[in-house]
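[Primary structure, fold]
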Amino acid sequence: MSGDSVAGSRRAFLRMLGIGAAGIAAKRPAATAFAADSPPAASADTTIRLDSNENPYGPSAKVVAAIRLAASEANRYPDRYYSELVAGIAKLHRVKEEQVVLGAGSTEILRAACWTFTNQAKPLVQAAPTYEAIEYYAASAGAKVISDPLTSKFQHDLGAMLSHAASGAGLVYICNPNNPTGTITPRNQLEDFIARLPAACYVLIDEAYHNYVIESTAGESFLDRPVDNRRIIVCRTFSHAYGLAGLRVGYGIASADVAKRMRAFCTQESVNTIAARAATAALQDAAGLAESVKKNTDARQEFRNGATLRSLKPVDSQTNFIMMDTYNPANMLIHHFRQNNILIAPASLSLDTSLRISLGKPDEMAAFWRTWDTLPIDKSSIRH
């Protein structure tokens, strides 16, 4: 598999499998030696990274200040700050603290859910394509993975998923908004779907990108109302809108009983002192979150404007990335962008002509379009 084909969300899992390590290392600038009493030199890497759905602006100024303060306590175990973060999450979502499961990124919540509810006799049901982490964790639990293609509108095919869940599935995974498509499946449809699931089947709703969703009835979060259905688990992350991908903080909300069962499969206090303090500060900085979301909303609209000027029609996104069918081999386009110092990702290994472009800063997106305009392809073939 070429380095071009592993961009984006596949990075962690290819490392897990031992694939593409050399290509990944090649993306990073060489380490710079520095004296113990001097700060590290700023990275000279000028690569534009539009491949991993990261927040290009990073955490807010208040969160950065909290990180700097927390660094002086790196010698302390995170007990106190871990508890404070759990309390802050519970308060935000109006749930009891025992309903909160913390993890090193929301991927730890996905792993815990798989190990709790799937096994050789209880498959995982998911959409295709969707975020890949869950299927790797289900496989590690010995579970069969049943993947149902998305509808023509890139929504979950709930009818097909219900049919498979009825045959003894232990867990259904709903990534909403979905990665890599950026689309949402309306809440009323999901409610009807969940009501019809077998009593022994649980549903994990991954809302990693929910902060970017345009407010509407269809896009309403499953945390916007009391969490009173014991079969529902909702997970969130601080990676995207809060800009803390590098610190790995995520959480799940479930009934107290389900949370206790899942917690048995989580690493004890996997959220470290610095990460916990940063996430707590992020929860308290409503203005910083609002500014982050607005910048992304503006970037999303500007991307649509750039696409329209070129007669392109990307998939309507509710996230910080855009999926677009190029009607040309995705790897070829990815290679062209990489030669111009821009990293973008394939949307999915199953959608081999589609790209997933993470939204960057204005100058980065301008560079994206300049590079797009130099693509050595017949662009008339991809106009809609």
